[in-house]
Amino acid sequence: MNHDIPVLTLGAQGEVMAHAVDACVHCGFCLPACPTYALLGDEMDSPRGRIVLMKEVLEGHLALPDAAPHLDRCLGCQGCVTACPSGVPYGELITAFRGWSEPQRARSPLDRAKRWAILKALPAPKLFSVAARLGQHAKPLAPVLPAALRGPLDLLPERVPAMQPSPAVTAARGQRRGRVALLAGCAQQALAPNFNAATLRVLARNGIEVVIPDGQGCCGAAALHTGARDEALRLVRTNLRAFNPDDYDAILSNAAGCGAGLKEYPVVLHGLPDEAQARAFAAKVQDISEYLHGLLQGGILEPTLPARTPLKVAYHDACHLAHAQGVKAAPRALLRAIPGVDLVEIPEGDLCCGSAGTYNLEQPELAAQLGGRKARNILGTAPDLIASGNIGCHTQIQSHVRRQGSPVPVMHTVEVLDLAYRGEL
Amino acid sequence: MPRPPTDGPVEKQALTTTSEARKPRSDGSPTNALAADLTRQLGPRKVLHQLSERLNYRYDAIQFGVTPLAVVLPESTADVVAAVKAARAAGVPVVGRGAGSGLSGGSAPMQEALVIAFTRMTALQVFPERREAVAQPGVITLKVTEAARPHGLIYPPDPASFRTSTIGGNLAENAGGPMCLKYGVTGDYVTALEFVDAAGDVHRVTRDAYDLAGLLIGSEGTLGLITEATLRLIPPAKFTRTLMAHFAEVGQAAEAVSAAIAAGAVPAKLEFMDRACTNAIEDYLHLGLPRDAEAVILVDTDGNDLDTVTGELALVEQACAAAGGVTRLARDPAEADALWQARRSISPALGRIRPQRMNEDIVVPRSALPDVVREIRALGDASGFHLVQFGHIGDGNLHPNIMFDPRTESPQAVHDLAHRIALVALRHGGVLSGEHGIGTMKRDFMTDALDPATLDALRDVKRALDPAGTLNPGKILPDPQTPEAPHAHP
Fold first, then answer.
1. Best B1, B56, B118, B356 residue to mutate vs chain A (most A CBs within 10 Å)
2. Recorded GO terms, molecular function (chain A) (predicted)?
3. Phi and psi (nearest 5°) for A136?
């Protein structure tokens, strides 16, 4: 698409944005991949439409507040990136655009306070845990609370588990085959501490030593994708200091959103002094399923015990795993490797579940529509178990599956493996 | 490039329009009398009037046009009638739009207009007992087959964009697709239409008498707005086999095609792509296509008798080998699906080469294919532009595309090259459009393709159904006052 984006005055992030706009041939192949287009059926809530809106704003032809409602409705799921034959880096475009535009946004005090609270609480596991506990007690009040508060409360599990601090180093069992670093994650530590516990057990069982480096923090994705670029840069640099890529075979994440965030560091730092360091770092980042799949392909993944009864598992592709990181085959291969597991595909599998970072808090209505649709699609396959690789999808799917009256368990892929290793699947 | 219209700015080149529609910030209320009237009649949900909304209904997959005054998203035929009547009362032209995946500028407004976008008219019913489906225009093409398949039926027309494009858009352009070699184009599957005319009256027509339905199909929204179609469904073939062949030269591929069909093969699909296409696709899908080959052809034979299916494939295989090609059979349906996904992605994947392109849609007699593809290749090589070729070669329907960057390459030179390509087709007894329509992209070439008397007959048809010229103005027919197109090749 031709444009007159003033790249020179916009700097390195301007280059990122101009390149993406340039690459779009406005063919419309992205439309059926877009969750908001599926719900709203209008062009300005489609990826192609949003690219045009961003272009017009950057060129000075359209006021930001006019475009903002449509851009805010984008989940950032990147389903369009997978669908795009022209290779438009839409995710880079919308992230850079949000970073560029946020300082120009006029937000209400309530809006600002909400954003501040989200951005402070999400990256601080202890604070988040306290908030989640308070929220858990407030749940019965949900029906009388304003919608802005009801959304997050609905997503909280009935019982917020106790924090389980992870050890700094987990030794390999048996012969040591490798050494990896793990990003501990933020909200996940509070809401699903077993994700990390299972990850450590599965890796140790396969002879992998796991280090959780001190001084690490939030990956910065939530800040970055909501346009809080300075905050994101601070978090990114904190992690670059905490993880020395030379010390590890791989830097692992077991949350798709965080893993995608880590892999994005070179784009975030494009044109800045730490860019080379970010490249070296990102080159080592893998999702837990990618890393384990590597062991499986190498023939050195320890076999699991078979499931106790034949088990139909519906695997849900987290957008930040399937679309942002392009990881689709690995988790499926790992689950299929468990004897007795019958893996089923979910209709409309590429469509986002509506969780998408802070989307549940910012666009609760659309998020709920997508969550309901996802739960119906999943339950339609009559699964015994639902597996996924992202805490956001996990809470969203669990919440909507329960709302539709189903008790089917929802687990992280690595939890399923962990149970299989222990003969408890 | 198409010449600029006389009555409004075209945001094609640099998109730095000076259109009055642009202003710093809209205040939330309808910006003109038409939008206000429509909102009053249809309610705010179905009418878009904000600049941020209207900006997004000015383009299709090849061209940017003029920002519309208002956009209506109808949910029923009655909504369409109300919209057409309101536009007529306001003296504003009407442009119909599906998913905006067209490739000839058909749904990009050429002047300030009312856009009626059918994406919310998505009702679809399947009647298996009479092998028909009744679809509103906003139904996504692929959904028809998806809805029919449980009844043991399919809807064969399959444009490359079938996951995105709508039935209404397919009807407006008389879309084709790979399956059309054996099974025919969109128009061959229509048994009845409902449409709204320029005055806002509703008509229901079938394929008899003057075949008004046939006239509407492929008329690119210039004669009426289709609001419902009855579509024919067929049972799918029991067996399908897929073959890929690659060649060291594009003319060899065309020779193989001519020979295979002359030998009696009637493939279900027979497509080709040149080296630039294969490489753009490889960059996207990483299928292991032969990057060094100058041309690749993809073939499906199908039928209910396996011997016939494999026999026909063998005919194609022999023709390819005789022309110097290397053939490979798809091992399984998954590999065949991947190859066809590759074919479907060519057009948009070409964006990886240059940001803009001029898309041709010529059809030539199959016997002329080797000469035509060689002549076009030579024109491209001599021009200095990135010229790529692909298309439904089994139908003689070729899509030469000229890739360019308007900031560094001359759109005038692109237009001249496109014109020379069109003349190659016409010289070999071909036509300008197989499935994408004339739109604005090939409008200038119509005076080369048709004699003045025939063009006048087309203008008479247009006048009969749209006397005031308010339906999708600026498309298909060149302006009679200026028969010499300003960019015509000297």
1. B56
2. 4 iron, 4 sulfur cluster binding; glycolate dehydrogenase activity; metal ion binding
3. -60, -40
- Co-location of B376 and B429 in the same domain: yes
CB proximity A56 to B under 8 Å: yes
Give the model confidence (pLDDT) of A347-378 as tens digits: 999 999 999 877 888 898 999 999 999 999 99
Query: Residue A244 in contact with residue A211, Cβ under 8 Å?
Result: no
Q: C-alpha distances in angstroms, A85 versus A47, A101, B285, B405?
A: 13, 28, 8, 19
Q: How far is it, in rounded angstroms, from Cα B278 to Cα B294?
A: 9
DSSP string, A54-65: HHHHHHTSS-HH
ipTM rounded to 2 decimals = 0.89
Quote the CA–CA distance of B409 and B401 in Å, as a whole number.
Answer: 15
Minimum CA–CA partner of B354 in chain A: A23
Q: How far is CA B268 from CA A382, B174, B338, in A?
A: 37, 19, 17
Distance from CA of A425 to the nearest CA of B (A): 32
Residue of A nearest to B48 (CA): A42
* Residue predicted with more confidence, A142 or B58: B58
B482 pLDDT tier (thresholds 50, 70, 90):
low
* Amino acid at the residue A321: L
pLDDT tens-digit map of A173-198: 999 999 999 999 888 888 888 999 99
Q: Which amino acid is at A295?
A: L
Which of B104, B120, B136 is the last residue in one of the domains?
B120
Helix %, strand %, coil % of chain B (to 5): 40, 20, 40
CATH topology of domain A7-104: Fumarate Reductase Iron-sulfur Protein; Chain B, domain 2 (1.10.1060)
Longest Cα–Cα distance in chain A? 64
B355 contact residues in A (CB cutoff 8 A): 1-2, 22-23, 25
According to CATH, the topology of domain A303-421 is Rossmann fold (3.40.50)
Angle at B455 between CA B454 and CA B460, to 5 degrees: 95
Which positions 336-375 of A are in contact with B (Cβ < 8 Å)? none
- Answer with the one of B213, B232, B251 that is the final residue of a domain: B232
Chain B residue with Cα closest to A53: B52
Averaged pLDDT for residues A89-93: 94
3-state helix/strand/coil string of A154-205: HHCCCCCCCCCCCCCEECCCCCCCEEEEECCCCHHHHHCHHHHHHHHHHHHH
| B282 and B207 part of one domain | no
Burial of B408 by CB count in 10 Å (0-12 exposed, 13-18 middle, 19+ buried)?
Answer: exposed
Single-letter amino acid, residue A353: C
Long-range contacts of A229-232 (CB under 8 A, 24+ apart): A229/A99, A229/A100, A229/A102, A231/A119, A232/A99, A232/A268
Domain borders along chain A are 7-104, 303-421
Q: Which two tokens stand for residue B337?
A: 């699906």
B482 lies in a domain? no
Those residues with Cβ within 8 angstroms of residue B389's Cβ, 6 or more apart along the chain or in another chain: B250, B272, B273, B274, B277, B373, B376, B377, B380, B398, B399, B400, B401
Q: Which of A323, A310, A324 is nearest to A349 (CA)?
A: A323
Q: How far apart are CA A33 and CA A22, in angstroms?
A: 20
Contacts of A67 in chain B (CB under 8 A): 52
Q: What is the CATH number of the domain that holds B112?
A: 3.30.43.10
Distance CA A17, CA A7 (A): 8
pLDDT at A157 over 70: no
Distant-in-sequence, close-in-space partners of B123: CB < 8 Å, separation ≥ 6: B134, B135, B136, B139
- Structural domain of residue B197, as residue ranges? 124-232
Q: What is the pLDDT of residues A24-57, one digit of tens each?
A: 999 999 999 999 999 999 999 999 999 999 999 9
SS3 B218: coil
Within a domain: B257: yes
